[in-house]
Amino acid sequence: MNCYQAKTGELAKHWYVIDATGLVVGRLAAQIAPILMGKHRPTYTPHVDTGDYVIVTNVDKVVFTGEKWRQKTYQRYSGYPGGQREEAAWKLFQRRPERILELAIERMMPKSKLGRHMMDKLKLFVGPDHPHQAQQPIVLEAYSGRPAAAGIQLPPLPKGLLAHAAAVAGATAAESEADA
Amino acid sequence: MRATKGAARNRKKKRIFHAAKGFVGGRRRLLKSAKETLLRAGVYAFRDRRAKKRAFRRLFITRLTAAAEMRGLRYSRLVHGLKLAKVGLDRKSLSELAIYDPKVFDQVVALVQTELAKHDAAVLARQKAKSA
Question: Is B2 inside a domain boundary?
């Protein structure tokens, strides 16, 4: 079948930054995972990494709803008999605060080599600072649920081959706001 | 004279082993394994020529979802609106439009949104009339 297939490195990769302060772990993960996969663009191609980079600051300030800090547990298995380990969310948080969000996103990603490769584009930072100013990341607004329902902010279209598309993104942003 | 099969068998074997090139281990070396593997390969090929069409439709839908959500529309709403607006383009053409000619796709979405607004207003009016 003849249709668009992205080639590796064909589409320019963008950088986004989001402040995780006070955001619910799963909802934030559900916003970030599609960006890492490239599913936020019509150029999505399953066998190619078309996703963008996402920087998350203040990952140590994410929240759970309900009693999950106390009740939620993470399981690991060492491979030896009797080697199953269980750790409460609050304990894991004390040990490695960034791991909470990382696990949530990781488990939403494809379980494949490409999926693990896509995870490399996720940059998590405890505290408000990150060393990626040079990439001039675009600030993302957090939303929950379907982006359309919340009145999404528009990620600009990829540059490169599809340069003319970037100009349109601004016009559509105004349009969708007018509808909302 | 007695009919022998030597040459014919060799030709047949040659054809099978030629087709089995690149198979793993005994599947390219042993006649029986090669035959079975080839048979199965044919079955998979037949099945997957049909599955391919479904796989691509899924891809187009994923792409259209992204394109629609960029413009503040859900995929299901987009498809509903397309039907209301009597846009006959299929998912493949629409997704290609969204990639190569986003401006035209914007116009399609604008059309869809006016039709949806009309539809929503009509539904709302009907509900009001019912409850009144």
Answer: no
